[in-house]
Design goal:
single chain; alpha/beta; Rossmann fold
Length: 255
């Protein structure tokens, strides 16, 4: 996969560039037709139950759909990926999820899987699906996520993904792990939430070494995508979040 334009994302992260973006198709437009073949890539957000709704709505929908749509603008402009230009939210226990080999889930401190959901995710991942986890913070949320993933893969360990792994170099050369703060904390002060002081990128691998689950813990890539066009959100974080996210997509589509 070659670059479509400059590798410096900050060169176009400005209000004028975003204003020139193509109009988005209706949310879930292709998913509703049951035809997943119109584009080669769909940024699919996993819908799950569990946790209480708050002022921002259900936990699965934090930053939705703006973060997803803004990320897709970058993906379509900076790569040659034929991506569906709008959001695509699918319940994690819906058989249609298997039509979309890339799924993004966040706020997994509230994740609660029943037996059918755990089995569905296991089959999805074993058959080539790629799951990206984002935006959950601290030891309590980690313990819940670890418990839920043990229902999916009771015999697979969660490990740190080394910086030399291809997922960090699939399109952009990412050499360090940054802690990406939410839009409020990005303007000054500590970047962490709760006791999530240190960002991690962890993963679950299959028997052949394929990375099936990519876990961004103590960081919030989605907020950086959502607020990238806000002049008060630091470009350092949004640039990193876009580069890392694009790497995830290219890795998923190549493996």
């Amino acid at each position: 996969m070659r670059h479509f334009c400059t590798s410096n994302i900050t060169a176009w992260l400005c209000a004028a560039c975003w204003a020139l973006a193509p109009a988005s198709a209706p949310a879930n437009g292709d998913a509703e037709t049951g035809d997943p073949t119109g584009h080669e890539f769909y940024f699919t957000r996993g819908i799950y139950g569990g946790g209480e709704d708050d002022d921002w709505g259900p936990r699965w929908a934090i930053d939705y759909p703006t973060a997803d749509q803004q990320f897709l603008i970058a993906l379509r402009r900076l790569t040659l990926v034929d991506a569906f230009p709008s959001d695509n939210a699918v319940p994690i226990d819906d058989p249609r999820l298997r039509d979309y080999p890339f799924t993004y889930i966040l706020e997994v401190g509230a994740l609660s899987l029943d037996e059918a959901q755990a089995q569905g995710l296991r089959e999805y991942l074993d058959k080539g699906g790629f799951l990206v986890i984002d935006d959950f913070w601290g030891s309590w949320a980690w313990r819940n996520f670890e418990t839920q993933m043990a229902k999916v893969f009771p015999d697979r360990a969660i490990v740190e993904v080394p910086m030399e792994h291809p997922v960090f170099h699939a399109f952009y050369d990412v050499r360090e792990i940054l802690q990406v703060p939410n839009v409020y904390q990005a303007r000054g002060g500590p970047t962490h939430e709760l006791d999530g002081y240190q960002p991690h990128v962890r993963g679950i691998f299959d028997d052949h070494g394929r990375l099936m689950v990519l876990i961004n813990w103590n960081t919030d890539l989605g907020d950086a995508w959502e607020w990238a066009d806000n002049p008060r959100y630091p470009l350092r974080y949004s640039t990193y979040a876009y580069e890392l996210g694009i790497n995830f997509v290219i890795y998923a589509m190549s493996n």
